[in-house]
Input
Amino acid sequence: MSELTLQELVELFQKTMAHAWMVRTFIKHCDEVDDYPELMGIVRAVFDMSRAIETKVDDPVQYFRFAQKKIGKLRTAAEQFRDDAWSASTHTNFQQAVKSVLYSTEQMEHLLKIAREKMQASNS
Output
């Protein structure tokens, strides 16, 4: 993956964000959210990340700079969602949503690491 350009990494990050966005949509519209408003934490975190990067897809350096600022909040929200989802429902949809958002976050962190290394190498 290190042979990818920064723009190609942006495209991969966007695809990964799409998975997180689908979890956001599922949670935002599920009935359980009325009884478990804490589930909205992941909804807000995914939305916040999306808003931070969506206008920067043509500027990879800025894109990854802003994504780096938001990834910690997304990681925290994903971990909290893992804990909260089990209280809301043990249904397979919730189990898969937890796996999906944790994996998406993990992949975004990995892509950010690669992007950081590329940007550092180009500044050397």
Remarks:
- The chain has a mean pLDDT of 95.
